[in-house]
TrEMBL record:
InterPro entries: Amidase_dom, AS_sf
UniProt keywords, alphabetically: Signal
PANTHER family linked: AMIDASE, AMIDASE DOMAIN-CONTAINING PROTEIN
Amidase domain residues: 54-455
The protein's name in its UniProt record: Amidase domain-containing protein
Segment forming the signal sequence: 1-21
Amino acid sequence: MTGYGVLLVFFAITFISPSISVNGGILRKFQAQEITVQDIQIAFKQKKLTSRKLVEFYISEIQRLNPVLKSVLEINPDALYQADKADQERKSKAPLSLSNIHGIPILLKDNIATKDKLNTTAGSYALLGSVVPRDAGVVEKLRKAGAIILGKASLSEWSHYRADFIPNGWCARGGQAVNPYVASADPCGSSSGSAISVAANMAAVSLGTETDGSILCPSSYNSVVGIKPTLGLTSRAGVVPITPRQDSVGPICRTVSDAVYVLDAIVGFDRNDAATRRSSKFIPSGGYPQFLRTDGLRGKRLLITHYPGFGFSNDSAVVNAFEPHLRKLRDKGAVLVDKLLEIPNVSDYFGSSGEDTAMSVEFKSAINTYLKKLVVSHVRTLEDLIKFNHKFSGLEMLKEFGQSLFLASEATNGTDAAYRKAITNMKKLNKGYEKMMRDNKLDAFVTPSPNCSPVLAIGGYPGISVPAGYDSNGVPLGICFGGLKGSEPKLIEIAYGFEQATKFRRPPAFKP
């Protein structure tokens, strides 16, 4: 039998399984698999579900599916304790229990630090056993909101910044993560484990990180919703970095509403991340859930982009696949600006923008700073990481994948002329993009996700990817809405309006 044949048999067997008992009732798998945060909170209030039973359910799903999907690196040994604590808080009607995500299990990408029994390794054995000084800023906020830290999700090792040709979803600790819809398909992006896990109902919600495409791409390819926030809207403190100039933390969930509830809990000022001070001004009074409006598309001006490599371009297959979506946007009241508006030097976003040059310089400084702050670690510099990989080349699959990006970054010597030119060029591109958006009174642009990621990445702009169907092979397709800094309220209205009008998401098919 082929490997894919074994995979099919595995999925056929594992999906024929008994229901689980919940407080004397029955929570059937088909009910639990696509359950939303709102559904869970209602079940809590009606005493049909407890956090303990929900955590037990997700642990059982991880134990069943993770041997094949390889999207979870660790389960939190304290998850059930946290669940019992949440159940008690709800029973005593503690103020904390009123939070939208109170008692909700959440998986964290394994570059987000937790000061507990979990490791934070960016998928590498080099950081296994290291001790972080404190919870990441977003984890502190999750704990204050009463969320349950279920465990750590796999990722493309070092957030896909060790080498050019490491496959999406591969890391030394977890191996190759698998797209749950079509096993041979790309799981995409470095936050692949977070997207796969919630897509396959191994967790209620998750967090990912993005430097360029690592939330939007896996969300698109795994039929889930991903929000890449405005730079600094969420804290990056305690997150294994690539570059503070572009890194962002955001939710990956099955629905727009779930993603918004998580976003609402993790935004805000953090004294350990200066960027949060600048971006806190964008947080709306009353929070983000108020923008979950079914008529959110009405009156929105959306740019349909046609630049090669960015929008719908001249690819007839893409245009034909998304034409029904564009009609739906119009039907729901959106105004589609379907013309080739001029973003000065737009092709540079996808070629000579200088992003790679700047990132190489910034990674060395950022990772050295992160490593030096660890309480316990076998490695303290990028040079140490390179030596570790050389020493354990068999373990790290160095011979096959290498560490070209590490080596290039280590060879940099600070902010030289090439770096300064790269920064200047990117600032020029961002000004052109912002001028185009404002001059044409655009609320957002729309692209087949994740084609928009370079524009959003180098400018620190927000974007949301929403499920938009499946191709002829069953591989998920996403649609991305992007805007200007602080435009999350408009993007949420647009994304939620589209989701509610189409409802494309369906559970994984587990095809070979």
